[in-house]
Amino acid sequence: MKVTGRCHCGQITYAATVDPERVGICHCTDCQLLSGAPYRVRLPVPIAQFTLLSGTPRTYLKTADSGAQRLHAFCGQCGSPVYASAPEHPTSITLRVGCLDRARDLPPRQQIWCRSALDWAGHISDLPGTPQQ
After folding, report:
1. Tens-place pLDDT, residues 83-105
2. Most CB contacts within 10 A, which of 8, 13, 36, 39?
3. What domain range includes position 21?
4. This model's pTM is above 0.90
């Protein structure tokens, strides 16, 4: 599936060819902190299937407790997270599904780091809601 994506302010734009079967939810505490949300919806993509169309992301190198490192790319203007990758010679990048134009067409197919999941995160469908603020 071909998709395009952008940061909130539009300074960074990109295109990619993605496999919808690879969409997943990550409940790790790093994703919670880096996204400011109870989990992050992510989509790994081979680097050859990704094209940066405009802008230059800023990056942040995160070292996990295990010693593994991930390079997190984000917009330096609006702060939107765009992707993560290995810090050197990445073969793939992990896109942030919320930044994709076709996010509605990319439901999660799996979950990881469930031991870190917030207990209430999966129980919101019965909450009252409104179509707008």
Report:
1. 999 999 999 999 999 999 999 99
2. 39
3. 2-116
4. no
Q: Is residue 133 part of a domain?
A: no
Judge whether 70 and 62 are in contact, CB under 8 Å. Answer: yes
Rounded distance, CA 111 to CA 127, Å? 22
What CATH code is carried by the domain that includes residue 64? 2.170.150.70
**Does any domain span residue 28?**
yes
Residue 40 host element (H or E): strand 40-46
pLDDT in tens, 16-62: 999 999 999 999 998 999 899 999 999 999 999 999 999 999 999 99
The verdict on residue 90 lying in a domain is yes
CB proximity list for 77: less than 8 A, separation 6 or greater? 7, 9, 11
